[in-house]
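## Example pair
The file below holds two records. Each record gives the amino-acid sequence first, followed by its structure token line.
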Amino acid sequence: MEQLFSNLPVLVAHTGQNKILYHLVVIIFAAFAAFIPRYFPVLFFSTRHIPEWFNEWMKYVPVSLFTALVVKNIFITTAGYRFVPFGHVEQILAAVIVMVVAYFTRSMSMSVIAGLVGVWLLSLVV
């Protein structure tokens, strides 16, 4: 790649070991790599009628993913990936608080805030 752009001294200016052009090309490709997987589904599904059963089913996906991530962090240790039922007592109690707040408010943001505050306060006490 260096030989391809060797005639452009301003774009291939060396700053230590870093090359400005290389970083710009990486940033542009990363932007396309992040943009394309988001754009094509919107383009494809914006003209199609989505069945009602699919919309009902999709409502549960964020909650289930969030729950899977939280439960994994509470009950699985990073050292050896073992199941530990009571390894993080403050996080278990905070998860119960989150479930109560989520049930009554139906708000993801309020649930996350309650969980963060609960973990913080319980980690000071427990």
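Second record, same layout:
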Amino acid sequence: MSELTSANRHGNLGRTLLWVAILLSLLLLGFVTALTVRNNPYYSDRDANGVSKYRFLEECKEGIHSSEQLTTLKGVLQQAGQLQPNQSLHAEIAAEPRQLVQSVQTVPSGGWTLSAPANISIQGQTAVLGQLGAQCVYDKAQGRTVAQLQLPGQQ
């Protein structure tokens, strides 16, 4: 009989150590996951506010892109000759992700609100034409997010 197939071999110690290492790895992974979830900046009480903070921010960004104030601004710039008829405007919230998450506030009746600057540029170009104030509100009762841009001269 060869040495590798010998019945006298002591392989149980190695197998036991392998199982202990696997168990310790799983415990460590669970601990790290629990810490990460607890310190997640996007964590929010979805039941109290109607939608998660992350979903609210995504809906706000989408709403800013398609706000009627952006369409109004496009018409004004085209009439002034500063924008060609085939060009369109693009609006993007100018705050860094950390600032954006910290700017989100809860509404007492349930929901979210956000006020942040938005960069306005021509679609496909990197140059910023200017900044406008952006406001987003999620109303839990209506179940929708309303996004607006603050045009110059508006209050």
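Notes on the second record: The chain has two domains: 1-39, 46-150. The helical segments are 12-38, 46-49, 53-65, 68-79, 97-103.
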